[in-house]
Amino acid sequence: MLNLERLRTLDALARHGSVSGAADGLHVTTSAVSQQMAKLEREVGQPLLARNGRGVRLTDAGRLLADHAARIISQVEQAQADVEAQRGCAVGELRIGAFPTAMRGLLPRALSALRTGHPDLRVRVREQEPEESMAAVVRGDLDMALAIDWHNKRMPVPAELTRTHLLDDSVGIAVPAGHRLADRDTISLAEFGDDEWISWNEGQFCHEWLVFTLRGTGVEPRIAHIAEEHHTQLAFVEAGLGVCVAPKLGRGPVPPGVRLLPVCDAVRRHVYAVWRADADRRPSIRAAVDALRATAAELQHA
Fold this sequence. Notes:
With 302 residues, the protein is α/β, with parallel strands linked by helices. Helix content is 43%, strand content 23%. Helix 1 (4-16) packs across helix 3 and helix 6 (107-117) crosses helix 10. It is globular and about 75 Å long. The N and C termini lie far apart (56 Å).
């Protein structure tokens, strides 16, 4: 009999392309991956991995078995979803990935309510950028992801995923208290042609949105500093080192030397949850969505 956990390890290797990637996806050590693969090779009686420079690759037998493993795991997950749906109870484990501001501003309250209503459901959360977490849901490394896109730039959602809107997150521009526009009631992005910006990492969806949006107003963005956390960006703004985008979700206290200016053309982010379409019947998914929607509604009316 082939061991299911060893097949999961082989499937992770095939999807991630490396022992370290498989280990990260499975939340185990690289040594544990190697041990599971060695046992699986003894079970099937032939090599499944071959050396490839400093890494490894699947042999023909490894690729053949990995194809079967993917189908077997999918069938097992569908069976688990069906059994869970038949019981009608949110139980077991639910793995969620969330971008930083949702991690701080949305998930804690939602998970607290989920724990109260469904004490037998164990939730594990990972902070991750939307592109990464959605890919992890497609691969099966996560059950759900919280993601964002913008009013003028949508993020593609893989066809295998179902999505539901949670809330619209209003966005302002943070400027130093002594900034020339600090006393304005509203501003236009086109007025920041002479300013330096504090932005997210290049390649991230929000950084690409900022560049795309500024150029759409005729402003060539001058990115002076890169910082992941909004609180860090606001500290740079307070020091007079530039301006930044300041979403409301998870914002927290604004430093005294910073002014938040509403944008006259209503810049906003859309926050939503995604999960695999074949897991739609799982009560744990439905319970999590209900808790997220309820918390999002409270935040929208706060």
